[in-house]
Amino acid sequence: MKTLKTIGIALLALIVIGLVAAALMPKHFEYERTTDINASKDVVFGIVNDLKTQDVWGPWQKQDPTIQNTFNEVDSGVGQVSSWTSKKSGDGTQTITESTPPSMVKTHIEFEGQGGSEAWFKLDDAENGGTKTTWAFAFDAPWPWNLMSVMMGGQMDKMLEQGLAGIKEMAEKRAAEAPASTGSYEVKTVDFPSHTYLGIREKTTFDEFMKPNYFADRVGRITTLLEKSKMKPTGGPTGVFYTWDEASKTTDMAVAMAVNNGTAVAGGTLQTFEVPASKALVVDYYGSYDGFASVHQALGEYVKANGLKEVPPIIEEYVTGPSTEKDTSKWLTKIYYFTEGPMAKAN
User: Fold this and answer.
1) Amino acid 212: pLDDT
2) Which of 48, 119, 126, 305 would give a disulfide with 132, using CB separation of 3.0 to 4.6 Å?
3) Which residues, listed in sequence order, are joined to residue 98 by a DSSP beta bridge?
4) Model's pTM, two decimal places?
């Protein structure tokens, strides 16, 4: 009996010591780990900006096979939500709350009945090339549960390291499979400056759009209004495509010409609109317009292979063409695909 009493007193003393220690310990915790990944920031960002990829690289799926994930209708980026149920780990949700291509993704994680935490990915240029990738967690733990948080620090570090290893494997595989160029087309990443366009936007059929006078008629009307307004274009004729629906054979597009930024002019169906500055992929295509389909196919494959997300509009800028050059091999068209979300807004 005396031995049991001694053990009880010792246990009580340990509990008291633990509670006192917890009162002196921090209640806010942050854990982070970093690794270098031999892939571009665009490739890594495409992975961490899509919660569905966590089914592949997430460390918790390997630790808990009972986890079942579902996702909302948002494909990626801000507003995407992953919800999970688990017999072992409990239920919860993860929501992307901030997305800054291609350098930062923040999420809020809510554990049902246990509170929430914040997590973020930070992507920087690595010294030896590639991407320096940091994954971090932060949460608050009230007394006395903060004592357990201190004790589980090693487990948190291990989880972060396992997750980063999974991201590294996935990103480097994507980078190895992604061509620097596609076919005979060199795909370049550029900073597309903001543009003001004067144009005519309409929904039309492929058959109507393909008529020989479709572009010429609208470019003529744009040129006439510019002359009346004593203005000059700052770029050549341009096609701005918001949709291209193969099923219905229709497109929502504008025939336009660039003008000085901030210009506001309108006449009839003509109006100015903006395309904001953004990161873009561009191919400088030389040749007749019959070859456009292969260029768009190549750009689409490049976007997919590099884990990027295409965002409308697509822009075709006809730098030289039949009005200035007879030799079709010298016709230059710059075709832009945006990856950061420019959406044209009418003035």
Assistant:
1) 78
2) 126
3) 106
4) 0.53
